[in-house]
Amino acid sequence: xxxxxxxxxxxxxxxxxxxxxxxxxxxxxxxxxxxxxxxxxxxxxxxxxxxxxxxxxxxxxxxxxxxxxxxxxxxxxxxxxxxxxxxxxxxxxxxxxxxxxxxxxxxxxxxxxxxxxxxxxxxxxxxxxxxxxxxxxxxxxxxxxxxxxxxxxxxxxxxxxxxxxxxxxxxxxxxxxxxxxxxxxxxxxxxxxxxxxxxxxxxxxxxxxxxxxxxxxxxxxxxxxxxxxxxxxxxxxxxxxxxxxxxxxxxxxxxxxxxxxxxxxxxxxxxxxxxxxxxxxxxxxxxxxxxxxxxxxxxxxxxxxxxxxxxxxxxxxxxxxxxxxxxxxxxxxxxxxxxxxxxxxxxxxxxxxxxxxxxxxxxxxxxxxxxxxxxxxxxxxxxxxxxxxxxxxxxxxxxxxxxxxxxxxxxxxxxxxxxxxxxxxxxxxxxxxxxxxxxxxxxxxxxxxxxxxxxxxxxxxxxxxxxxxxxxxxxxxxxxxxxxxxxxxxxxxxxxxxxxxxxxxxxxxxxxxxxxxxxxxxxxxxxxxxxxxxxxxxxxxxxxxxxxxxxxxxxxxxxxxxxxxxxxxxxxxxxxxxxxxxxxxxxxxxxxxxxxxxxxxxxxxxxxxxxxxxxxxxxxxxxxxxxxxxxxxxxxxxxxxxxxxxxxxxxxxxxxxxxxxxxxxxxxxxxxxx
Length: 674
Known about the structure:
Elements: E1 2-4, E2 42-44, E3 47-51, H1 62-77, H2 79-86, H3 90-103, H4 111-126, H5 144-154, H6 160-167, H7 183-186, H8 198-210, E4 223-227, E5 233-237, H9 245-260, H10 265-280, H11 283-295, E6 301-307, E7 321-328, H12 330-341, H13 343-348, E8 364-376, E9 383-388, H14 392-398, E10 400-405, H15 406-415, H16 419-424, H17 428-453, H18 466-469, H19 474-489, H20 493-497, H21 505-519, H22 535-554, E11 557-558, E12 561-562, E13 565-566, E14 569-570, H23 573-593, H24 596-607, H25 612-623, E15 630-634, E16 637-642, E17 648-654, H26 659-669
Parallel strand pairs: 3-15, 8-10
Antiparallel strand pairs: 1-9, 2-3, 4-5, 6-7, 7-8, 9-10, 11-14, 12-13, 16-17
Helix pairs in contact: 1-9, 3-4, 3-5, 9-10, 10-11, 17-19, 17-21, 19-22, 19-23, 21-22, 22-23, 22-24
C-alpha cells in the first residue's frame, strides 16, 4: 500500500519504433548545500518538477554502491511496462513523441510546437496519454495535420487507431473508470482486452479461483486477460518467456548482478526468489518471494520491485509495475522504530471491535529511508510512504515492511512554499501551529498510517480478500482505514510517552490539515463539474465529510465565511478524535466482514460527490497562488566508474536538472518493448 504526497506544504501529508540514441550526457551538478540546490527547476500544466538528493551515498561501501546501482538499473529496465499497462497504444505514441522531441528539425518557437512539447511532458509525467491522477485523457493543443508533419520530418508514423487515440475525445477517454455499469469496458487500462466485459472477467476469475490449490494466491496479479481465437478468455502472464519478456529478461540480468553483491544471505535469497518469479510468473513463487523479502530485515539497502499495487485496475486485481531503491536513514529510523516496537499496544487499544483486532501483531519493520532511484508507477509521481506486502495472510503470519521516503518528503518541503496555508488557514493560531508542528505531524501521520494502520486488524473467519468482497471500493476503504488509525492515535498521550512528539499541538495540526485538505485543498485537482474518481481522494473526502457532518451538528467544528471565503474552525479536538474512532470501527468492520453494500454506501455517499460551490471557491482562491497541485521527480543518475579492465571502482551520483533530457535519456537506454 502506498501513501502519496500531493504538492501541498509538508504539513499537508496524509496523506509499459526503435529506441532513439541517448542524448549527450547531462552535466553533473555539484550540490554542496540545500541552499544552493535548485529543488524545482520547472513547472508545466498542473505539475511541478522536483529534484531530490541522496545524502549518505558516499558513505556506503563499494559493494553497497554496486547493489544500489544494479537495483536501480533493474527498475529502469522495466520502464516500458507501465506505459503499456496504462494503455495499449501508449508505447507506440511515446516512441513517436520521443523521436520528434529528440530529432525534429523544424521550427520550435511557435504555438504549435509549444502545445506539442506540453503534450510530450504530460505524457512522460503520466507514463501515458491519460492524466496520472484524474485518469482523463490529455487534450492535444495541436492539430492532427501538424502532428503528421512532425512525424514525417523524423521518419516516424502512427496507425489510424493510434492517431484516433490521441485526437478522438470519445475514444478510451478514461484510464480507470469508477462509475458506470461496466468498469472494465469503460477503462482504457491494458489489463484486459478492449472488448472484454466486467461480467466476463468476474466469471473468469470465479472459475479460476474454484480450481486453485491455494486460494490465498494473489489471483490475476501479473497478467493481462485476452480473448483467444475461439472467443474464450485466457491470461497472458508477465514472465521472461511471456508478456513483457524482453524487458523482464533485462530486469533479471540486473537482479542477478545484485545477488552477487547482496549484503547478506537472506537478502540474496529474496532476490533469487524474485528472479525465479520473473522467470516463471508463478504466483505461488510470488508469495514465497514476499515471505523471504519480509524476513530479510538486515542490511542498509532495500528495494521494492515488481507488479504490486492494484489501484489502476478497476477490478482491483492487476498489479502495476513499480520499483523504488532505498538506503536506510539510520538516525531517523532509530527514532521512529518506537512506533513498530509498540504495535501491539496500539492494536490492543484500538477502537475497533475486539474480534477485528489482531491478537498478535507480527513482524512489523519500519524504516525511514533515502530513495536512490525510482521507476514505473513510482516515477515521476512517487509515494512518500509504502507498506508491503499487500497479501493479508502474509501480513498476519510473517509481518510487513513499512518505509517513509525521507528525502522525497524533504524535497517536497523545500520545493513548496507557505502560500496555501496563508490563504486557507482559519486564523493566525492555526498558521503558527502548522508552521511549528506541521512537519512532525506529517511524519507521524505517515508512520502511523503505514506502520500500524495497514498492518492492523484482521478478517473474520471465512471472509475472502477485500479485493474480492469490496471490489472497486477496496482501495479507498483500505486507505481510509489506515488514515483513520493514524488520526485516532496522533492525539494519543502514548506518543508523548514514547518521546515521539512533545505537545498536543502536533495532533491539532494534523486535524487542522486533514479537514482542510480533505474538504477543500484536494479539490484543486478536480475539473469543474466532475466527481472524485481517484481512490486516495475518495478516501480523504469520505473521512472528512463523514466526520464533518457530525462535528458540525454537535458544534465541534464550525465553517465561518469571511469576505466570501470559507474556513474550517475546529472547536473541540477531543470530539473529533471520538468521531475518527467511530468511523475507524465501522470501516474495519466492513473490511473484516466483507460488507460490500456498507462500503459502497460510505464511499458513494461521502467520497464521490463534490460540493460545487466550495469547489469554485477553492479554484478561485488558489489561482493567484500559482502552486501546481501535483509534483513529480527528476531522478538522480548513478554512473559507474570503471578501470581499464572494465571493473567498477566507484559509483557517482549526478543530479540532472532537465526533465525532457532525462526522458530522452531513458528512451535511449531503456526502451526494451516495441
